[in-house]
Amino acid sequence: MGCPNASFNAVLDSINSYEIALRPLSWFRQSEHVDPGNVKFLAETIVRAGHWLEPIIVEKSCGIVMDGNHRLNAALELGLKRVPCIQLEYGDPRVCVRHWRTGYHFEVAHIFRTIAQGEIFPYKTTRHEFTPALPVISVPLGELYA
Hints:
The protein has 146 residues and is an alpha+beta fold.
């Protein structure tokens, strides 16, 4: 029922290995529908903080959003030009993807097929888990408008 856990040694090797990159919003490919109310609330929260605090997690070869569809839409609403992200591959032992409702393993090939067809999944279809936990960052919003 799910993803194998990364080996202990792989987790130890990757603890501080998440790399943050700034990517233009045009590069990201939304993967799921979002709740517009949540997007609005998130955009307001980001503005109040004055900083971007949580990177969007994307598939590194083509920009499919693994985690952060609401953040992507908030960035679009705010008129940002780029946002911080962590670029990973689905084969990375730190990544596990499950079906949101059942908790069962979600076929990664289905994600690529769906996005390639120009479609996105319904709200809360996939749940991506990352081991170790993702870092908290602090990027001033002013840096993301340029």
